[in-house]
Amino acid sequence: MSHVATAAAHPTLPAELLSPRGTVHWNLSPEALYDFAVRRGEGTQTEGGPLAVLTTPHTGRSPKDKFIVKEGRWVEQMSWGKVNQPLSAQHFDRLLDEVTTHLASRAELFVRDSWAGADPEHRLGVRVINEDAWHNLFASNMFRRPESGELAEFRPDVTVLHAPHLALGDRFREFGLNSPTFIAVRYDRGLVIIGGTRYSGEVKKSVFSILNTLLPDRGVMPMHCSANIGEAGDTAVFFGLSGTGKTTLSADPTRRLIGDDEHGWSDTGVFNFEGGCYAKVVKLTAESEPEIYATTRQQGTILENVVVALDGSVDFNDTSITENTRASYPLEMIPNHVPDGLGGIPSNLIFLTADAYGVLPPVAKLTEAQARYHFLSGYTAKVAGTERGVTEPTATFSACFGAPFLPLHPTVYSGMLGDKLRRHNATVWLVNTGWTGGAYGTGKRIDLPSTRRIVQAILTGELDTVETTPDPVFGLAVPNAVPGVD
């Protein structure tokens, strides 16, 4: 569905929220958004058709610039601290005025109505308003597109106002901020305002954080994980922070992909929150990751912060802009995806950790107690470029493998995990995709073919009966051998 309308002519865009003076483009097709982005000079056409864009100086998330309005029932429910920083309602409203004034002055705006969540019982309606066409294309890729006829009755539960070119300058202190960049959520009004950053990951992660807040009350466990389904109908989920291998390892040609980053686990099974993938493409090759590589040769894909030559070719090995190079593409570009985004109760859960110190074994089978411990501690290494200022792997403990996106206390999510493991008898594995033979700089990173073979052995049941030896430090049950792995 593509059409052009003014805000006043559309009954679901309140004039008191935003009254644009320019043209408003509603739910344009990906092809139309691509054309707008190219015509407006927002990006570069690359070989094969993808749109290459730059988001500098923000080439990763800005976790120190995230805020939640402290009001209503959220005062008691939120886990306040460095991750969930409080913001007063007065400061939010002043910021909202800045954002809406800025957006209203634009010659063109782009609005996208989508679903967050494949399960109709638990999904949220999300409206994203952008000043750049390519950001609206990102929203089209990453959220789930309504079916024919659903847009006529669409009412958003959450509205995201994205003003990347808003420049607060030194005035940011007047709004209770840490910098001119901000990502602020006001739950009581269903609003997210983002300013001062073009990094598109802020849009999708802000909605993920909202789902992480609301779904536990519905008995749904939100998860920072990828998920796929085997030929026998068995569902597997892969937990891990950015850079640990969620996207890479779940894009398996022998299994169907449910999603690569965000899911919910309800009483009936697993469902994808998104309609697309946001894959890291640093050092990407057709040989190592053929399904993902193929998307980087198709129109509709957005390539963030990759280096593009004058002839339109892309060098995925060039990290001069950032190591956090990304590709955003709709899920249907993966040939063996699950169209409805739904899977059954998972039989295997895999915790991915990029251990920067070469301490953890490549694979271990966890007891329920060990699973809850490792889930709650979430040890991994932040990979270079994933956040601003991270230039080499740095050890971190990120609760539930997703602390930056968890507004509630981590024990809420770990408690849900323990309950579901007991009810469904799922098996949990710890897989190290980091270093072996020593720490970063001394040892070497475990190669991708070895990790793929380990995961394959887990999912085919080959490791269910293999003899194990307790790790001398952690007490984990480490398989004595994995067929095909050194």
Give a quick summary of the entry.
The chain is α/β, with parallel strands linked by helices and 486 residues long.
| Rg on CA atoms, Å | 22 Å
Strand content: 25-35%
General shape: globular
How would you classify the quaternary structure?
A: single chain
Helix content bin: 10-25%
Please list the strands of the largest sheet in the order they lie side by side: 1-2-7-8-9-11-10-5-6
Counting DSSP H or I runs of 4 or more residues, the number of helices is 10
Look at the helices and sheets and give the structural class: alpha/beta
How far the N terminus sits from the C terminus, by CA atoms, comes to: 53 Å
Low-confidence stretches: 1-12
Largest sheet: 9 strands, mixed
Total beta strands: 31
Task: Give the overall pLDDT as a whole number.
Answer: 92
